[in-house]
Design goal:
single chain, mainly alpha, 11 helices
Length: 192
């Protein structure tokens, strides 16, 4: 994320950049800064993007989601849920990606606030969600069901083929088989 932040910062400081592109870069920069260990700078970028008249729905989703992530990392789950609700409102005017990200934000925040039934409905994505969003929703559902002790639902969320047969980050490549293994252990099916 640090390299992405550096590239986006170059765009943002270029005052010759058309305002809508600069503000969109600010929205993306906010999240990159938060995830690269610069939370104060990330929140400042998000606030600036949200204050701009040039911020479209996707930019507002990205910027507000960065602030939501900060509140989550600070352990302020109720604030994070409130911000996720605002992200959902922002995404209503956006495209499919913004709406999918908003549903993932809301579902994830409700999950971490131990509001599992609510989270589950948000993690059922619209038909136009991307494959990556569907993978993230499945993984979040599996985590949530693991916490709840719903072992068969963990396996339903991540079938055996999906545990190893996908294009994702190294973290997901390690987590998915571990989630399945944990559920199989509790079901006395370790041979699978």
């Amino acid at each position: 994320f640090a390299e992405a932040a550096w590239t986006l910062e170059e765009l943002v400081v270029n005052r010759a950049m058309p305002p809508p592109i600069r503000v969109a870069a600010l929205g993306m920069l906010a999240g990159a800064l938060v995830l690269s260990g610069r939370p104060t700078d990330g929140e400042a970028a998000a606030v600036e993007a949200l204050a701009s008249e040039h911020a479209d729905a996707e930019t507002r989703v990205r910027a507000r989601s960065a602030i939501r992530g900060l509140r989550f990392f600070e352990g302020r789950f109720d604030d994070a849920v409130d911000l996720a609700r605002a992200v959902v409102r922002d995404a209503a005017d956006g495209g499919a990606i913004a709406r999918g990200e908003a549903r993932l934000d809301m579902g994830g925040m409700l999950f971490h606030a131990d509001r599992f039934a609510e989270a589950e409905t948000w993690l059922l994505l619209d038909a136009d969600a991307t494959d990556a969003q569907r993978d993230e929703a499945a993984e979040t559902l599996a985590h949530m069901n693991l916490v709840r002790g719903c072992w068969t639902q963990v396996l339903d969320a991540i079938p055996a083929s999906a545990a190893t047969d996908f294009d994702a980050s190294d973290v997901s490549r390690d987590v998915r088989p571990a989630l399945r293994c944990h559920a199989l252990l509790h079901l006395d099916r370790v041979e699978e």
